[in-house]
Amino acid sequence: MSAAPRPSSPPLEPERAVDYDFSEAHKESFRALAQSMSFVGVSMLLLGLLGGSIFAFVAFSEGYAAAGVGVIAGAALWLPMAWWIMSAGRSLGGLVRTHGRDVPRLMEAVGQLRLLFAFTRVAIILCAVVVVLVAAGIVWCTMVGQAGGKCFGVLG
After folding, report:
1. Cβ distance 63 to 32 under 8 Å?
2. Under 8 Å CB-to-CB from 61, ≥6 apart: which residues?
């Protein structure tokens, strides 16, 4: 016995971008948001590059290598965040300047914001893990220190 042939389903059409234009009031809101995002992104980029390098240089020159490394690591976290904020601001700015491509421009901005928030989520989780580990180390050192044992590193 052979199975009866199934009727074929109609071919799926690829998603088509609908030409949609936001109203002028909406575009004004997007314009203000794009300007704010661009300002914040450029400010973070400058603070990360200039501030990070200046403070790291001072820390290294004064003999605080660990602080210098921490400043460089913090600046390294700011740079991709600044880039994604500026990219999302540019996409929103393009949405305001063009007609008929509002939805694709908005989706570009949403994609950049998703990257930013995914990165920030990972950074927050890693910072929380480090804080918990440091706190656990301090508690452990306190317990061992009271029992007459030696603690590790600078805490001992």
Report:
1. no
2. none
Query: What's the total number of domains in the chain?
Result: 1
For the question of whether the overall pTM of this predicted structure is more than 0.85, the answer is no
Q: Which residues contact 56 (CB under 8 A, 6 or more apart)?
A: 68, 69, 71, 72, 75
Secondary structure, 3-state, the chain: CCCCCCCCCCCCCCCCCCCCCCCHHHHHHHHHHHHHHHHHHHHHHHHHHHHHHHHHHHHHHCCCHHHHHHHHHHHHHHHHHHHHHHHHHHHHHHHHHCCCCHHHHHHHHHHHHHHHHHHHHHHHHHHHHHHHHHHHHHHHHHHHHHCCCCCCHHHC
- Domain extent for 100: 24-146
| Inside any domain, residue 8 | no
| Residue 2 resides in a domain | no
Say if 114 falls within a structural domain. Answer: yes
**Per-residue pLDDT tens digits for 100-144:** 778 888 888 888 889 889 998 998 899 889 889 988 887 877 777
**Cα–Cα distance list, 94 to 17, 20, 22, 36, 74 (Å):** 16, 14, 13, 14, 31
> Which residue is it, tokens 């994604």?
84
